[in-house]
Amino acid sequence: MSINWRTDGVRVVRADELSSDTAQTIGMNRSEAVSAATVGASKIWAGTVSISPNTKTGAHHHGEVESVIYVITGLARMRWGEKLEYTAEAGPGDFIYVPPYVPHQEINAGNDTSLECVLMRSGQKAIVVNLDIEPVEKPENVWRDGMHG
Predict the structure, then answer these.
(1) CA-to-CA distance for 30 and 124, rounded, in angstroms?
(2) What's this model's pTM, rounded to 2 decimal places?
(3) Each residue of 42-61: b (16+ CB within 10 Å) or e?
(4) Does residue 73 sit within a domain?
């Protein structure tokens, strides 16, 4: 089989080419960079996420996929567990690993700055399963769009 390296080789996804047509979680604004839709990826998903100051997401998990969050700016507080009873914080340059099916909540612990992160998942699809559990820190300043409610 002959491969056309020019068209089937390295792909650069420019900042203005990111797509917000991806699964969303209340309180977050995700944009995909690497996916089946954007570059034909089959095993990974990567993009960005922005969380406004003092914003908390609803409880959710990402199904069977593993997730990695790299903090660019801001202070991330993560809660996880059956009742979101565990907590940890991460700042610029830190990585956060989220195993499959772990219920969690992302929180921008900053009062006056957005939390900006790069998000990577082991699955190509951006799976988001919103959970109906009472979070330790209730969502506020929620981000919503017209498609995901």
Answers:
(1) 15
(2) 0.81
(3) eeebbbbbbbbeebbbbbbb
(4) yes
Q: Residue 51 is encoded by which pair of tokens?
A: 């969380």
Q: Per DSSP, what are the bridge partners of residue 61?
A: 129
Do the Cβ atoms of 129 and 61 come closer than 8 Å?
Answer: yes
CATH of the domain at 69: 2.60.120.10
In a domain, 16, yes or no: no
Q: List the single range of 16-20, 48-52, 123-127 with lowest mean pLDDT.
A: 123-127
How high is the pLDDT of residue 149? 36
Domains contained in the chain, number: 1
Residue 69 is predicted with a pLDDT of 96
Q: Note whether residue 9 is domain-resident.
A: no
Nearest to residue 49, comparing CAs of 18, 77, 80, 78? 18
